[in-house]
Amino acid sequence: MPAQDDEEQGQVFFDESDIIHEVDVDEEDLPDADDEDDIENIEDPDDSIHIFTGHTGELYAVACSPTDPVLVATGGGDDKGFLWKIGHADWASELQGHTDSVSTLAFSSDGQLLASGCFDGLVKVWDTFGNFKRTLEGPGGGIEWIRWHPKGHLILAGSGDCTAWMWNVDNGNCLNVFSGHDAIVTCGDFTPDGKTICTGSEDATLRIWNPRSGESIHVVRGHPYHTEGLTCLSISSDSTLAITGSKDGSVHIVNITTGKVVSSCSSQTGSTDGNPESIECVLFAPNFPWAVFGGMDQNLTIWDLQNSSPRFICNHEEGVTCLAWFGASKFLATGCCDGRICIWNCLSGECIETFKGHEHAIQSLAVSSNLEFLVSVSMDSTARVFEIRDFC
């Protein structure tokens, strides 16, 4: 039969001489068509050098010790916190006693103590072996964030009950309650000189406080400030400026002494419904006249403080959730909703590395004290460690 007729009838015949090699195939090993997504996930590389899997729920917080380069603390939605060590898979200490999600963690500046904040309204303090020291009580709502005083054992915490609290950790005494906000206190910190406190809230205001008297020195609100709740805050190393990000997609820089807005920037893009995309993270550069911020508009903006204009706008495939500087260097890490971590050279605006491994959104990043490791926590219930010594 002519070959043309075979093709028209949909039949093709082979001779035994056409067979090159026979292979036995087990049907159970063949992938189903429905498994294509799983095949793609398997092919994704994992660039991490250490994975901590002690948690059973989403992770929200990570902190690296300022004095021990391998000591890490993590906390999450499984109501647990852990202390563990990079490269020591057999060492972990559970921070027991929390009754709700561990939302925030911070080491004291001398590295001697760790504080963990929980949605049950309690702050617990531990030594670096995971031994419980004391509980700090008072807030009537969940703990949103905690910060240590830069020069001593004082803790500042923001709460869901519209207040911020300050305790002396060595004796457990409450030193001041900062009342005035009308909604959740979502962000805050001591200034690096320890002389002033700044707090931001869902009520769209920034308050500047005297930590000794508890007096509100300035309330920043209304035009030209944010129109929706604050999400994040950072204070410059010279204690003169605060930068805040908001759900309204804007970033404002405030002079702490005067309480005046000195610079502003809005998100580059809006959502599909026309509403602004939230700013999720802000930071001042430790050693350059820059500020950086990222958000759900899928951008990292490197802001020139001297010219009050963008130096670079760095695009991501999905939203930016968190930031971490590599010490005082020019390198910065961004954590993203797609589970990837991007490393940026902020002098050139170039993405020089992308770390893969997480399956879901990155929630927080921390850098080890020796600048050799970047630790990330994710909604995928894992903490991962990546090597960054080549960038520092």
From TrEMBL:
Residues 1-45 are annotated as: Disordered. Transmembrane segments: none annotated. Its main location: cytoplasm. It comes from Gossypium klotzschianum. GO terms for cellular component: cytoplasm. CDD domains: WD40. WD repeats lie at residues 95-127, 136-177, 178-219, 223-264, 272-313, 313-354, 355-392. It is found in: Cytoplasm. The lineage of its organism: Eukaryota, Viridiplantae, Streptophyta, Embryophyta, Tracheophyta. InterPro entries: WD40/YVTN_repeat-like_dom_sf, WD40_PAC1, WD40_repeat_CS, WD40_repeat_dom_sf, WD40_rpt, WD_repeat_multifunction. This is Anaphase-promoting complex subunit 4 WD40 domain-containing protein. Residues 24-45 have a biased composition (Acidic residues).
